[in-house]
TrEMBL record:
The keyword Signal is assigned to this record: yes
Residue stretches making up the Blue (type 1) copper domain: 65-166
Top-level taxon of origin: Bacteria
Species: Ottowia pentelensis
Protein name (database record): Plastocyanin/azurin family copper-binding protein
Subcellular location per the Swiss-Prot or TrEMBL entry: Periplasm
PANTHER family attached to this UniProt entry: AURACYANIN-B (PTHR38439), COPPER-RESISTANT CUPROPROTEIN COPI (PTHR38439:SF3)
Length: 168
């Protein structure tokens, strides 16, 4: 009986978790208004999609630090590459790495100032406490530039941004 209840509870939780992965935050705000009527999957298709960990072609180590910089801050990939970002917070404050367009990241930073301490659950975002490590796998599907930033209050404004250049 207990096992059946746990399975039912997990099944019921799957819908909200899928919704979080599709573009909402734990903490209560949705994607920026600049997304218009695009769904989360349509938006992600503009700069990529969650990658299959079994198809990772390259691992990129990224260090976040209290100098308000990403190390490295510029990364080159090719269309179709699936990259595992292994991210380490070497600082003494919370940092994050969020993939998107610079305009969206700036708008997200405004939302973060309104909701400090918000945790993320989207596949294009990692939020790390001091000393914590995490990873995300992303497939880059379109040529061009994909930005990333730390949207913790004040961090993006201090210059904590970077770019992924996606070659055809």
């Amino acid at each position: 009986m207990k096992k059946t209840f746990v399975v039912a509870l997990l099944a019921a939780a799957a819908v909200p978790l899928a919704a979080l992965a599709a573009g909402t935050h734990a903490g209560g705000h949705d994607m920026p208004a600049s997304h218009g009527n695009m769904s989360a999957s349509e938006h992600a298709a503009l700069f990529g999609q969650p990658g299959d960990p079994a198809r990772v072609m390259r691992t990129v180590d990224v260090v976040l630090d209290d100098d308000m910089r990403f190390h490295p801050s510029s990364i080159d990939v090719k269309v179709g590459d699936t990259v595992r970002f292994v991210v380490r917070n070497a600082g003494k404050v919370r940092h994050e790495m969020v993939l998107g367009s610079l305009d969206e990241l700036k708008e997200h930073a405004v939302q973060m100032r309104a909701h400090p301490g918000m945790a993320h659950s989207e596949p294009n975002q990692l939020n790390l406490k001091p000393g914590q490590r995490g990873s995300m796998v992303w497939q880059f599907t379109q040529p061009g530039q994909v930005d990333f930033a730390c949207t913790e209050p004040g961090h993006l404004e201090a210059g904590m941004v970077g770019q992924v250049q996606v070659a055809p």
